[in-house]
Amino acid sequence: MKLRTYFKRLLIASLLAPGTLFAQDNKGVAATDSLTLEQVVNYALENTAAMEQALIDEQIGEREIRSSLAGWFPQINANFGGTYNIKRPQQPIGGEIITFGQKYNSNIALQATQNIFDNNLFLATKASNSRKLLLDQQVTDTRINTVVEVSKAYYNVLLTKEQLRILDQNISRQEKQYNDARSRYEVGIVDKTDYQRAAITLANIRSDRKRVEESIKASLAYLKQLMGYPVEQELNLTYNYGRMEQEVQVDTTELLTFDRRIELQQLQTQRDLLKLNTAYNRWSFLPTVSAFANYNLLYFNNELANLYNQHFPNSSVGIQASLPIFQGTRRLQNLKIAQLQEDRLDVQIKDARRAINTEYQTALANYKGDYTEWRTVQQNLVMAEEVYEIIKLQYDEGVKAYVDLIVAETELRTTQLNYYNALYSVLSSKLDLQRALGNIDINR
């Protein structure tokens, strides 16, 4: 009965989420169907090496925070010692030489201390939240970079595949033209230069196709690397090119808000930590106060075999304070260092704001230029197709020479390839602009 219920639930899940069932080959998904951009990015956010390392670094950082706060817990130590007195101390007392101690000594000591006030521990406590925030910001920074780089690699693969499709169409069309030109030559309508030109053009297109086909393999390998995808497993991608064209739009009137940038957020968190460090150094003259408790078991005997037959215990409790009085101006120098570190970070923050503004202006200029180029090539593509069709008809009617047809064919192919290059450029520059604005969506 339980097995039947399990299969029912599995069937319902597959009906409610078609196309999202994946084999558990790795963490996340190992797709059996073609993956969309969202699925590729989500897979990368779970499996890419950069994200795994960032999450491990976050765990390491959390453990370091806990380690720095461990001093607030009681510190318990046990010590064991044994001594063989080769020559015991002697002293004259009342005209006699008295030998002190016994040949064999041993002790077992148990000591517990509890920090009551410690400036270092107070600093660690106050800084723990900022350190955790900085760890989280580092993970966020890695997620942003992963989304951008994986998206670019995804677009590159798909648009290169589209270029391959265009070249296949050109090969098919050119093969027909070659066959037509050869047939015309064989019946004496044209000379052999027409089909020779067709052969040259066909060979060039096939060469271009081979180059693009090989580049797809390299692009797929790079995408797998970014995703953390199994090397030996086939990766299939899918996308709606109409939707891709629609997604090139971005609001270019949006103003730059510096606080959105994770880099500035990280620097601000670092500044908070430096402020705490300066405060710590300013109050470093405060004493360290702790309580302690000791319990010792002492053993003495002249015979090793009888050493542990009897013990002599002693114990004590107390409180101790350590007050630094003069350390050769060390505290003053450390305070000045902490203040200078704050000043240096302030300079870094100002420079980071200028760098972010430059990045934004560059990204905005690149996007506007790439968008204009894409729209221009898009219009040129329509005209190139129209010109080719007209010249093809004129050539078939014997009005145009074959060289005119070759020129039109070359212009059409170049424009088609340029169109997808321009589309990739504008999509990439859009991602760069969104990153510059701090608008990358990482909550997937």
From TrEMBL:
It comes from Pontibacter virosus. Residues 1-23 form the signal peptide. SUPFAM superfamilies: Outer membrane efflux proteins (OEP). GO terms for cellular component: cell outer membrane; efflux pump complex. This is Outer membrane protein TolC. Pfam families: OEP (PF02321). Its main location: membrane. It is found in: Cell outer membrane. Belongs to the outer membrane factor (OMF) (TC 1.B.17) family. GO terms for molecular function: efflux transmembrane transporter activity; porin activity. Keywords: Cell outer membrane, Membrane, Signal, Transmembrane, Transmembrane beta strand, Transport.
